[in-house]
Sequence to fold (1885 residues):
Amino acid sequence: MARLADYFVLVAFGPGPRAGSEEGHGQILQRFPEKDWEDNPFPQGIELFCQPSGWQLCPERNPPTFFIAVLTDINSERHYCACLTFWEPVEPSQVRPEAPACRGEEEEEAGERPSPSALVPPTQLFAPKTLVLVSRLDHAEVFRNSLGLIYTIHVEGLSVSLENVIGNLLTCTIPITGGSQRTISLGAGDRQVIQTPLTDSLPVSCCSVALLFRQLGITNVLALFCAALTEHKILFLSRSYQRLTDACRGLLALLFPLRYSFTYVPILPAQLLEVLSTPTPFIIGVNSLFQSATQELLDVIVADLDGGTVTVPECVHIPPLPEPLHSQTHSALCMVLDPELELADLAFPPPATSASSLKMQDKELRAVFLRLFAQLLQGYRWCLHIVRIHPEPVIRFHKAAFLGQRGLVEDDFLLKVLEGMAFAGFVSERGVPYRTTDLFDELVANEVKRMRADENQPHRVLRHVKELAEQLYKNENPYPAVTMHKVQRPGEGSHRRVPPRPFPRLDEGTVQWIIDQATAKLQGAPPAVRAEKKATVPSGPPMAAIVERNGAVHANSARRLEVVRNCISYVFEGKMLEAKKLLPAVLRALKGRAARRCLTRELHLHVQQNRAVLDHQQFDFVVRMMNCCLQDCTALDEHGIAAALLPLVTAFCRKLSPGVTQFAYSCVQEHVVWSTPQFWEAMFYGDVQTHIRALYLEPAEEEDGPVMKGEVGLAEAGAPGKEDKEEEEEEEERSALDVASEQRRLWPTLGREKQQELVQKEESTVFSQAIHYANRMSYLLLPLDSSKSRLLRERAGLGDLESVSNSLVTNSMAGSMAESYDTESGFEDAETSDVAGAVVRFINRFVDKVCTESGVTSEHLKGLHVMVPDIVQMHIETLEAVHRESKRLPPIQKPKLLRPSLLPGEECVLDGLRVYLLPDGREEGSGGSVGGPALLPAEGAVFLTTYRVIFTGMPTDPLVGEQVVVRSFPVASLTKEKRISAQAPTDQFLQDGLQLRSCTFQLLKMAFDEEVGSESAEVFRKHLHKLRYPADIRGTFAFTAGSSVHTASRQPRTTKEKSPSLRTLSRNLVKNAKKTIGRQYVTRKKYNPPSWEQRGQPVPPEDQDDEISVSEEPEPSTLTPASALKPSDRLTMNSLVERACCRDYQRLGLGTLSSSLSRAKSEPFRVTPVNRMYAICRSYPGLLIVPQSIQDNTLQRISRCYRQNRFPVVCWRSSRSKAVLLRSGGLHGKGVVGLFKAQNAPSPGQSQADSSSLEQEKYLQAVVSSMPRHADAASGRNTLSGFSSMHMASHGKWGSIRAGGRSSGSSLGVDVGSRLAGKDLLGTPQPNGAPSEPGFLRPQRAALYIIGDKAQLKGVRPDPLQQWELVPIEVFEVRQVKASFKKLLKACVPGCPAGEQSPASYLRSLEESEWLSQIHKLLQVSVLVVELLDSGSSVLVSLEDGWDITTQVVSLVQLLSDPYYRTLEGFRLLVEKEWLSFGHRFTHRGAHTLAGQSGGFAPIFLQFLDCVHQVHTQFPMEFEFSQFYLKFLSYHHVSHRFRTFLLDSDYERIELGLLYEEKGERKSQQACKSVWEYVERLSKKTPVFYNYMYAPEDTEVLRPYSNVSNLKVWDFYTRETLAEGPPYDWELAQGPPEPLEEERPDGGAPQSRRRVIWPCYDSRLRAQPDAISRLLEELQRLEAELGRPSERWKDTWDRVKAAQRSEARQDGRSTPSSLLMSSVSHHRRSLGVYLQEGPVGSTLSLSLDSDQSSSSTPSSGRQAARRSTSTLYSQFQTAESENRSYEGTLYKKGAFMKPWKARWFVLDKTKHQLRYYDHRVDTECKGVIDLAEVESVTPGTPSMGAPKMVDEKAFFDVKTTRRVYNFCAQDVHLAQQWVDRLQSCLSDA
Fold:
């Protein structure tokens, strides 16, 4: 029973403190009873809540108001204050005389100030007076009636004693719950019926929920619901106080079964508005009058009940309900609130049913939310941990397991709800296993299946909602047929009548006497004890079904689980090879949750007596699988995997040595879950529950205890571990909660001693578990190696974990103990104390928290704190021994490092660092859609040499086999290096790694092995950087290779040189050049060609000089006699004449031999030596071609008009049209542009600039005049401007090629322009890209076209009288080339696998790179220039600085126009002339040195080679060289293996002494320094650079298609061979030779000749060579077998071609232009135009094919016998590229008891040794006899087994210090020769 009302209070208006203020304050006039009740003190601050808007006087009498305010006391008890306010006239004493007229609320709101005349006191003012009833019960209607009755008695003057009524009201008692009905009367002839709810746990809402939905709508209420659950601040606004109370009550009713535990003030008084800025969540109601005060609240959700809006600030995020619950709830609410919605669209709607009453609708809405909570929290009881049963239950909720089961780990809403205070209260209140149950308990336990079945059936959902609503309604109204209340009410308008008197002062004595009487009666009566119906709370169905519904189990999981089980059984049966094969599949399967659970279950089976000792390999396997399991665990371990593994990591172990055992926990520490306090707490509580349960089970049942060990924490389906279904029911009955429920039922019946004993047992159980967990935590937190302590602290963040915790209790003891440990350990950075201190603090915090929550005594807790540091210290000592022993273990499964083969002169800088090569975006290497094995990831080592970065290793996938994987690139080609964190394939955690990208299109993505320390990795990076960017060009590999021999070239100043004249030459050249730079070179010097005697010795092509002369100047007076030339100058001229450009000038007929002036006059051009000292232009060659009429002294002035002084010079002349091609740098501002400016501009006088412009004009005129046909045609021609710029606007990125403002209809203009725009106006093009009309460029045209940069020539208006014309074009800049190349690199060699790996994504990134657009532009411009030249006009290319795009264009133009440049020799000459001599800045563009590092790599030369490749692809029969030659140059122009492509100009090369040193050092047989020399040597041995389809047409000018659709992506960018690395270092790319058929080791029949070629691994072109290479190889092999000297492949090839031609002529057939047409198109795309298939070609093709199939080399079964390049080309190759003084076949007697064998011997004078090989063609040396050890060479005698039929004198012996070698030559003569050679070698030494 409880009092209906605790206090009755009368509050009246009291004047305010300030004079003249109409604001007053509340005064309590009387309160009853005057003394506080003991159980319920009088609440403070009632007077504020009676008038929330403030106490004010009013000019008129307002009607009485009623509302209920809610006050919360310090114990969180709510007091309901029912307030009835009425107005009474103010007595004069209450108002001070000077008070102004008091205004009503409306006036006050309008803010009108009274006028000074209004100071006359008003006739009447009214003051508020409030009757307040304070109660702890919420019976709103009863309070309204009771206070109304008191007011009525007063107003109507009824003859009833107010004291009696109030006394009766205060002494009325009613039952709290139980559904009883009580009729009360207050003694005024009234009658009221009070119904108490059936259960007090269900809130009473009347109509408040329905009203809330009406006011705000569904979406807004749902938002408020989520906001309240996730602890946001909510503010209600309304003008009605009762509405505010109802809204707050309604929101709280929706939150059931959770209780709101934060600030709850339905009506907040104006004086307390600052409460709104509190930092804690709240639900508060405020009158709308004060809305302005709420404007600046930034984090408060405001619900305006009157306006129906909810305003959520920007900074507040309300997480929504998880789907599908949100949409289900929404639709259910719609059905309840708007039942007609379903019928709105029906054609024949049924008759309207009457809507539910408001009270019923209220309950239906609550039923929807009750269902929502039941679905949201279903299965929550399976995640409760009962930690203590006695004296009071202590229950913890396993949040992670609950989220894991629901599959809602990521759900923001549920996570916040579970972390909230309301849910914590829910667990402590409803988690109790033995208590009274209510509707929610039944719903969540029994109705879940029904709710799931109803999900998609709205009518069934509605039926369930109505059923629940009935129950809720019945709870509030147990007796529907209520007799009517009878309470008197005042008459209509009674408040306006003048009452007889104010509310009287009541007699305190009478009221108190009535109260005392009632109290005495109650004390005499027996206490009414309500019998609580306690019961065991049902747990409901387990969570199993939900997991299935979320589809977390994979469809093919059964097969995966089988694989996991098999692998584990193989491991424990010792079948390691089988296990190894399955391991990759297992590691993949362990990504799935089911497989991880399966693994933990299987491993549990192999643990006996908590221990399982394994051997090393088993231990490794188990640890790897555990790590793989744990790597996907989050910190919370919501699926219980880490929890299941925790007992296992302390069970599995291996013996390291006697007495030293290593447990698995030392190898699985690197996971974040171990450093998460919440995980340890959940684990601890789970284990405590298991032990507490075991404590109370009957001894007979205890056997089942271990079966269920810790299972509630395991988050498995049901109560995990229940295998037998028969036992299921019994098991369920005996779950921990059931045991606890039973114990709580028995608790009151136990004696005091028994109770004490049970409490003590439980406490010691918890205490022993705390000790156990302190040990476990030290196992998993202390690293095996103390040096890893830093890592551990960073990972775990063990230093700062007070804040993150799963619990609600915080304890000061933890903090104080942790601090004390801090101070005693000093927390210095000492290694062991550091990590130990962190671990001790972590464990102490944990122990404090769990022990305090579990009620461990403080003595025990102190004991624990003393114990923890000892436990940690002891464990550290144990670990030291384990760590020491584990280091002695031989590393398992680490393959031995494969050393790479190196080039001569290449040295290892850093020995192999063990790394994993990871797969990048190219999927071929890792299997992928192309098929083939997963070669990557591979395990091996990275080596850094002076030349390359090399990875060698083997695939980690054991199924691939032992293939060697090699990936390398030259150090000099490195473009980007970035650190990455990568997961090594064998370990489950991240390792440091490096990603290296090179401009040879290689990518090394490596993860360092754990044995490689970060220091080693850093050293590697530093060395790499140092080698990539040497301080000086002399630091590059081309200079340092074999530096011990080549010191001369590195220190030119100090070393004595072999050829001093050359060194002097270089020095003098530089000295003189330096002197003359800056001043004009005036002296003329006569030049004599070098004499033939000087050229006696054979020289490589670079030095085979052509006769050439430099014609003299026309003024003989200025010439110096030849005798005046200094010797050094004469040498300079000799050397300059030998350069490539001069040889080319002579071939083109641009220079003459004659020294007579008359002859020279007739030549239009001459060679000028004006730049021989590089004084005019440093980046030009020494000898240049200029017009005959231009004198040397004017060139200096002309050069100033051009950038970098690169004035126009002739570089090529068409032999047919005699048009010339000129090149220069771009114009300076005052150059040619000045010539073309408007003619009528006033001239400022003859300035220096004008004079040089004139010189320039003369110069161009001279060029024009030099062309025979244009010498006199000065006018009457048309120009290249006949198309408008609009015509070009839409094509390409470069805009247009167009002239200035003039326009003319010339067909030349239209056609050239439209070709450039990609349109052919004059008809369809020919197949080879030729124009459709042969004479289309024949109309009159300019003599000279200047192709310049559009930006430079802006605003130029050409003069029609000039004979040249400007063609402005837009060119891309170098930075655009760089950017494009970067994108191309990423497209062709992506760094990481793309999400959508499809051809489209590759093509898209290729397009975005714009590389092919740039190629298209270059080809387009080049074809334009070719056409102009072909039509007889000369062209000057004058773009940028004249050394990038200019070089690309002029080189391409010459290549397309002149067949000579399409030969090997011609292409070399072209590159030497245009790229090297004319100063392309290789060092600058390639960022060769430290200085250029910031500039980055610009692939200008590569772009040119790509253009050549495109032309080669379209015209495969026009080039003597193969595509491999282009790739070879592409690779080596950045590799720095050769010196050819170093430095920026001839001047710099001379300065470094590079240009002429080859001559002086020709005798030395060191590795080639020039790439050309290397190509030449290699070409003699193998046809690798030769194009068999070469059949040129001499006059052919090539006009390739340039549209992007016609261009192909060069396979140089995309193809790689992992078997041997890039194939461009020929010596390294040769694999081991295959054994011949007869040498099969097994002696059986030859096996199948087929073999598998893997993409990305083998080189298909080498494994299956073209037919001609195959035939040449076969031919050479046969010659060797017959003992004939083999001739060179080229001679054989030329002879065959000649024979075929003559044969064709004899047969009278048309000669095909190529020996082979169709049979060799294996890797070149030929256009149909070129393949004129004659009968010979086709028959040859067939015969070659059949020949190949019958004679291809057989394949051996062994891995080593892989087909490789050496077998294709070895016959063309001498055994080593060193000097061979003498060689031949000798028979050699083997060692003791070995037979004689024929070997190929090589005498090498340079190395002073005699080497021998198995065959002449072999590259691998079988043995070496060092001549330094030879003592004598003497005639020998035949011994047993010697060759028969050989003269005795053919035998000779070589005696060394070690043994005597017996030799036999084929005849006496040969033997004598050998002896003589050997003797001479010995005497030389």
